[in-house]
Amino acid sequence: MVTQAQRWVVLKFGGTSVSRRNRWDTIGRIAAGRMSDGDVRVLVVVSALSGVTNELLAIANGDDVPGRLAGLIERHRGFCVELGLDPDAMLGERLAALEALGTDARAAGRPLAWQADVLAQGELMSSTIGAAYLRSQGHDFGWCDARDWLDAIALPNQSEWASRLAVNCRRDADAGFGTRFAAQPARMLLSQGFIARHADGGTAVLGRGGSDTSAACFGALLGAERVEIWTDVPGMFSANPREVPDARLLARLDYAEAQEIATTGAKVLHPRSIAPCRDAGVPMAILDTERPELPGTRIDASAATVPGVKAISRRDGVVLVSMESIGMWQQVGFLADIFERFRRHGLSVDLIGSSETNVTISLDPSENLVTSNVLEALAADLAEVCRVKVIAPCTAITLVGRGMRSLLHKLSDVWATFGQERVHLISQSSNDLNLTFVVDEADAEGLLPQLHAELIRSGAMPVRAAGVFGPSWRDLAVGRPQRPASWWVGRRDQLLARAAVGTPRYVYDLATVRDHARMLTGTAAVDQCFFAIKANPHPAILRAIAAEGFGLECVSLGEIEHVFAHVPGLSPRNVLFTPSFAPRREYEAAFDHGVTVTIDNIEALRRWPEVFRGRTAWLRLDLGHGEGHHAKVKTGGVAAKFGLPLAKVDAFLDAARDIDLRISGLHAHLGSGIDDAGHWHGVYAHLAGLADMIGTVETIDIGGGLPVPYAPESPLFDVALWRAGLDEIKASYPRYRLVVEPGRYLVAEAGVLLLSVTQVVEKDGVRRVGADAGMNALMRPSVYDAYHGIHNLDRLDDTELTEFDVVGPICESGDVLGHGRPLPAATAEGDVLLVADTGAYGMVMANTYNLRALPAEDILDEGGIE
Ligand code: LLP
């Protein structure tokens, strides 16, 4: 019978968690806390003090044995003193045993059994010290020797080395195991990770990372409630946070996903530790010793299945072997033949890609690949049956997550990111958990942050799935920057009153527009800011922005005429015309208005020389790459219609000279919604270098494209970083006037779209809220899969929420404003919905499709509503 006292929680603490006194205080606190909540007993499994196992390994290899032993003895005595313990009384016996190993008769021959005894000393000492310290602090802790409980088992084909120094442990407990273990008197027990009993009665060790596995085996044998792995990071992340600071904490995983992530890169949990818990149905948690209050990563069988990419990882040093054979087609035994040769050279194959004439396989980096000439020997051997090419070093980039097969359509931008690199091999596993790309190691530099952002943007990594993803590493490291509450929260009554007049309706808050304008005008390096009026040409907004000292950037003659009509006293010097494939008469009219004109192709000069003869204009360049929140807003690179390619600059300048056209400015706008705060400073540097060559340039315009944090997980744009980058680069090239021309940044967050709920409908399990306008009023979600927050303004404080798709009344399946949005369960006909951050590219892109009326527009200003 399982009594209350036999419910166990196993806690494992690694080297850094046991090497300081304050960490042991934490261990004591955590263990006591676990015991008090739920009447369980606690087993703590510890590693050796940090660095000790490395020293012991050197000793086991016979390297400076006396010196290293002396060092270890001193280190552990010192640690006892730090903990206020008497080293002789408490650790004397163990230190003597450690010393004796150095003079042991076996030391000369270093048999494996002796090596295991040496390696085991680290855990034996740390656990002895820890148990004594915890007892001295009043905790009821007993100590037990893991070797009395964990038995090494022999596996078929195991080398002698592995059967002593990298063992597996028995996980099926005999009938009396639980009772015997529970018979130990202390309520809490401390034992060692990494060590086990060999069948011959001697010591065996589990190999590197073995402490996690020990804890998992104890958990399985005891049928524990939980195994908690306490470490120095807050859990498993969606990517290595050192490489991708925006990596998200994975709050919940199933065993298979955790296994895949641990195996393909994450170092935080040893891959071998998952199977024991999975097979015994014991939940696992990864937690941060420094910050025990954080939720960590939970791994169990009942994790809800949320399809999507959970993590992305990379393995460097991968070797590809490409084997070409014309004789392979339908030839029986070809693969058997080549794989036999890999076996012969002791190489284990990881990924495989094959076509009719080629088989390409990958080899993970391993000791013998680096230290021996095994590859050469293998290649020579294979050359007997095929043409061999070794491609190295490569990097394998793996996307891990459930339901990979059904996600491929969401990965188009991810493919595009890879598209610029040479992908040697793609492999998708049939367990539907893993998609791996192999590229040259050099090409993988800087790729992961980009891919991670793309996965989130495309929806392939479902970071909004409640309970699955936690905060980002960056937010955990610096504390999540508090987002200021949106302006509309405080204007709710006013907005409801406007909605009562009629919906759909855009409402803009001028104070927010001014705030954003001032964020940019305060930048010392920037000589002039233009507002790209295409984002929102509402006259009151244009006047407010012009009053802040901004010029206005126009893309059409219509916009030019609009600004002169609505902004009194506007000087043509403050108007910039940046057309795209505009008709000739728009250029003529622009010159007549006296505004600055930007040209982006040679053909215009050649066809209409008289339009440009003797004029001064700016040249818009395509720097060869585009950026932005979606492929459709990237305005650089071969796929984009904008800008003169760099290869044609000389020809353009010749053509300009022929018609006496003077180029006084260089311009590049490479996309919209660019997260990388360093982008603009790079554009300035590039353009300034070109300007130096051209000679007539006075002004450099680095475009717009500043991002807006639409989604809850979007990082806030770091204006200070943007400024600092511009200040720095301007200091290097001070001779040019620096111009920027953002649109979205000034107006997006200032606008909301108010809609009325028409119907609430459930169909095949999907609940939909219908609104009186959809893609006709706001195109961004259907065109760019853009995210906008959607709120029920009538029921802002409701806490009972249900997921709804929010749809419009347009006869298109793409008429969806948001998928799976948590909205009040009580949402009903007549409620007012607020679609947030719609001040940019909202009303101006609205249309009358299905002959639905355009939305109304209101301006909120200090004086009230305009
Ligand atoms: N300058 C030029 C030459 C542009 O083409 C644009 C935007 C801007 C400046 C302003 O970019 P912003 O700072 O607003 O990102 N409808 C899309 C955006 C299209 C942007 C077109 N050009 C959207 O809703 O995301």
Helix content: 25-40%
**Low-confidence spans:** 1-5
Hetero groups bound?
ligand LLP
| Main pleated-sheet profile | 9 strands, mixed
Query: Averaged pLDDT, please?
Result: 91
Number of domains: 4
From the alpha carbons, calculate the radius of gyration and give it in angstroms: 33 Å
Look at the helices and sheets and give the structural class.
Answer: alpha/beta
Second rung of CATH, namely the architecture of the largest domain: 3-Layer(aba) Sandwich
Calculate the terminal CA-CA distance, rounded to whole Å.
Answer: 77 Å
Distinct helical segment count: 29
CATH topology of the largest domain: Carbamate kinase
- For the record, the CATH class of the largest domain is Alpha Beta
Beta-strand percent range: 15-25%
Tell me, what's the shape?
Answer: globular
* DSSP strand tally: 40
CATH H-tier superfamily of the largest domain: Acetylglutamate kinase-like
